[in-house]
Amino acid sequence: MMAGPTTGRPRFADEGLFPVGQVRRLATSEPPGEVDETKRNVLKLLAVAGLVGATGGGLVAGSIQYAQPPQIGIASYPRVQLLDLDGSVLTVAKVEKEYNVMTSDVLLFNYPLRNEPNFLINLAPAQAGGPGASNVKNGIGHQNSIVAFSAICQHLGCPAPAMHFYPPGTCPQTPGGRSFYLHCTCHGSTYDAANGAANLTGPAVLPLPQVILEWDSSDDSVYAVNQVGPPVNGHLSTLQGDYPVGTQSGLTKQSGVPLCNFPP
Ligand code: FES
């Protein structure tokens, strides 16, 4: 496969879904059964204000002042078990056998909030002697090769599938000659998946936040337990801005078509 021209804005099969500059950072709807006490109190206060009517002018003013957007989020990073595509418990054995570095499919899970997608990437070689990486920063599994990074670009917040992982050898000319890189098709930022998702080329300048994974060897299961690096793009804090994912988070898969358009 030959590299395409490197001038002009990068192209991508899905780019119609993500116009240049679009930032998709909307909070999801309130989970059933979860009660936001701030919202409830605001509604109670407004109801009381309506009853007092004309005599409650001062109270109404106070109520409106109180009706700020509710703060949603969590106080600390939770321990969240990852589930496979079919809803079963995800195991390291499954990842090592089927989700290897040579697939262009993107595996995603939300953590710690429902609007914060992350890549799950196994950088180990699919076959002995093949291209791959092991003992990468914060990797888990038998080769310390399984890692997770935010799938929201640190430039203007384009999420997967505009953000994509390119298997080694997909394109002949890669940023800095790297083999393991993530590419944002919105404006061309690239990140080194084998080096903590460090930024390779702009316009982004920061690395992607990394989700810290934990391998429970008692049953081979996988947990997300923390996040390091800068906040997820668009949030002052990665812990604020939507509802938490809960105690489990399931993988989803997106197929992409890498087009090998990189900045020189
Ligand atoms: S949003 Fe601009 S490069 Fe990713």
Structural overview:
- This protein has 264 residues and is an alpha+beta fold.
- The protein folds into two domains: 37-66; 77-259, Rieske Iron-sulfur Protein (3-layer Sandwich), CATH 2.102.10.
- 12% of the residues lie in helices and 21% in strands.
- The protein has three helices and twelve strands.
- It has helices spanning 37-52, 57-66, 92-98, and strands at residues 80-83, 106-110, 117-122, 146-150, 163-166, 181-184, 190-192, 198-201, 210-216, 221-228, 248-250, 252-254.
- The longest helix has 16 residues, at 37-52.
- The radius of gyration is 22 Å and the shape is globular.
- The model is unreliable at 1-24, 33-38 and 48-63 (pLDDT under 50).
- Residues 153, 155-156, 158, 184, 186-189, 203-204 line the site of FE2/S2 (inorganic) cluster.
Strand order of the largest sheet: 11-1-10-9-4-3-2-12
- Classified in CATH, the superfamily of the largest domain is Rieske [2Fe-2S] iron-sulphur domain
CATH topology of the largest domain: Rieske Iron-sulfur Protein
Query: Average pLDDT, to the nearest integer?
Result: 77
The CATH architecture category of the largest domain equals: 3-layer Sandwich
Number of DSSP-assigned strands: 12
Bound molecules: FE2/S2 (inorganic) cluster
Q: What is the level 1 CATH name of the largest domain?
A: Mainly Beta
SSE layout and pairing:
Elements: H1 37-52, H2 57-66, E1 80-83, H3 92-98, E2 106-110, E3 117-122, E4 146-150, E5 163-166, E6 181-184, E7 190-192, E8 198-201, E9 210-216, E10 221-228, E11 248-250, E12 252-254
Parallel strand pairs: 1-11
Antiparallel strand pairs: 1-10, 2-3, 2-12, 3-4, 4-9, 5-6, 6-7, 7-8, 9-10
Helix pairs in contact: 1-2
Residues 153, 155-156, 158, 184, 186-189, 203-204 line the site of FE2/S2 (inorganic) cluster (FES).
